[in-house]
Write a structure and sequence with these properties.
The structure holds two protein chains of two kinds.
Chain A: H1 2-13, H2 15-18, H3 29-34, H4 39-62, H5 72-94, H6 96-107, H7 113-123, H8 128-159, H9 168-216
Chain B: H1 2-31, H2 38-45, H3 60-68, H4 82-91, E1 102-106, H5 126-131, H6 148-152, E2 158-161, E3 166-169, H7 179-183, E4 189-193, E5 198-200, H8 208-214, H9 224-228, E6 234-237, E7 240-243, H10 253-257, E8 263-265
Antiparallel strand pairs in B: 1-4, 2-3, 5-8, 6-7
Helix pairs in contact in B: 2-3
Classes of the chains: A mainly alpha, B alpha+beta.
Chain lengths: 217, 274
């Protein structure tokens, strides 16, 4: 049972890669395209979303025992909206420049698909620790994805002067290219992992067969 | 008991959670309050609040902030009435400048009925028509009559004069936000003081014989207006007469002297806000 739990936790921790919210699940496109024209803004947006995701997953998971399933969505939304409002207050106070440029997208974190998807699919059903791991993994996955997208768009658009990449259309083009790259890498990595797993099972099977034979002798 | 569990408990839970969250937010809102210059709200209250964008800022809020930060001048907003302007100037501790109310004026008397290169069948929009060889009229500077300016006006101050094919400004409604001046691909609309007694309704830069052949109401750059102006407020530059409203004394002699009738005496001449 303990081993099973460990395996589940490991799978959850890898969720950020295997179910990457941007490259695999394709969630939360609005802030992703809107606030990824520069690396710094993209990074801050990613971190903001990840913080809300982390706290909301923990809160929703902690509240799951007292949340009646009929009213769970209003409660999830309330939790997320509260966290986003708090985040807005902090940003307005401490990073006013970023808040002035990306403020409206910060408010939209409240209805970000990634956060609601994790609340509905994971945090509402699992214990606090797994939800924390899930949010951390998914959050990191989102931060890395949006930061890479921001970096690529800034490099191609501002530094190399290919102006389409600063426009939303170029954002989608860059996202598509990155998505293809990521999924190709994921495909090969999965194949490699599967082959290694198969070798391990074969070896174990051979070893157990050998022991059976020796015992028989 | 079943009734209680099914209907009352969820209500209580949602109420309880929202009450806790509301308290947290109210508490943090007070703790993390960002100090804003209280003058911004006061200045904002005296702006028209129509977000026309004529001042060059995105909204009246942004303009109010720019005023406080010293990035904009009190006179940059055309629609603000003079008494509000005085209040704002007092708040900012600057001298209130009495700014003449302005209105839009069209620098073309219409090219409809003049000789044209062909017939335009495309999208009914001046910007589109202008892309194709600068429109169908032989006059490169003239009004295309597509009504892009009429659509750009958010206040219904412009309408098309179908006979002449040029927009007409309703000066009672115009707030001089400048949206039409931006929209016109030929840059035929400008802002002039509402008290102006004459304006040059032509933008033709050809001059002389070509101007006369192209259009019946074009400025031929003869210079009669400049010669006759008692205060030397008119100059013919680039084959086109232009009135300097800073010098103009409002005699409208130029309108009577212009042989091409492209200087128009204005009927509406008083600032209706004074």
């Amino acid at each position: 049972m303990d081993k099973m739990d460990k395996k589940m936790l490991k799978r959850t921790a890898l969720g950020g890669i295997l179910d990457n919210p941007v490259f695999v699940l394709v969630l939360g496109m609005c802030p992703l395209i809107a606030v990824s024209t520069s690396f710094m803004d993209a990074l801050l947006m990613g971190v903001s979303t990840a913080i809300v995701l982390l706290l909301s997953n923990v809160a929703i998971s902690a509240l799951r025992k007292i949340t009646p399933s009929a009213v769970r969505l209003p409660i999830y939304l309330m939790v997320v909206a509260t966290l986003v409002t708090i985040l807005q207050m902090f940003l307005d106070k401490y990073i006013p420049d970023f808040y002035a440029s990306a403020g409206r997208f910060i408010a939209l974190i409240a209805v970000n698909c990634i956060i609601l998807a994790r609340a509905e699919a994971f945090a509402g059903k699992n214990d606090v620790l797994s939800s924390l791991v899930d949010a951390a993994s998914m959050g990191l996955g989102f931060i890395v994805a949006i930061a890479i997208l921001g970096g690529v768009r800034q490099l191609l658009g501002d530094v190399l002067g290919i102006s389409i990449f600063t426009a939303p259309a170029g954002g989608f083009i860059a996202l598509g290219l990155l998505m293809a790259l990521f999924n190709a890498a994921l495909f090969f990595a999965k194949g490699y992992a599967a082959r290694r797993e198969a070798r391990k099972t074969r070896r174990e099977a051979r070893r157990s067969a050998k022991t059976v034979k020796e015992e028989a002798l | 008991m079943d009734f209680f569990m099914t209907y009352i408990v969820p209500v209580l839970i949602v109420l309880g959670i929202s009450a806790i969250f509301a308290f947290i937010l109210a508490f943090l809102g007070e703790k993390l309050k960002v100090e804003v210059d209280p003058r911004i709200d006061k200045v904002r209250a005296h702006l028209p609040g129509i977000n026309c964008g004529g001042c060059g800022f995105a909204s009246c809020d942004a303009y109010a902030r720019a005023l406080i930060e010293g990035k904009a001048k009190v006179g940059d907003c055309n629609p603000t009435p003079d008494d509000d302007r005085a209040v704002i100037a007092e708040l900012l501790h600057v001298e209130a400048l009495k700014v003449q109310r302005k209105v839009a004026a069209v620098y073309c008397a219409g090219t409809m009925g003049e000789a044209s290169k062909g017939i335009y069948h495309g999208h009914e929009d001046c910007t589109s028509e202008n892309i194709i060889a600068g429109g169908v009229s032989f006059c490169e500077q003239g009004c295309l009559g597509g009504g892009t300016c009429v659509q750009a006006c958010n206040y219904g101050a412009l309408s098309m004069d179908e006979k002449r094919g040029v927009p007409v400004v309703d000066e009672d409604v115009c707030i001089a936000c400048g949206a039409c001046t931006q929209a016109c691909p030929k840059k035929l609309i400008g802002l002039i003081p509402v008290s102006a007694k004459a304006h040059v309704a032509c933008s033709c830069k050809s001059g002389g014989k070509q101007a006369i052949e192209q259009c019946t109401t074009s400025c031929s750059s003869c210079g009669l207006c400049a010669k006759n102006c008692p205060v030397k407020a008119i100059k013919v530059e680039g084959n086109l007469a232009r009135i300097d409203y800073g010098k103009c004394n409002g005699c409208s002699l130029c309108a009577t002297k212009c042989p091409r009738k492209c200087i128009v005496a204005r009927e509406y001449g008083t600032d209706n806000r004074d």
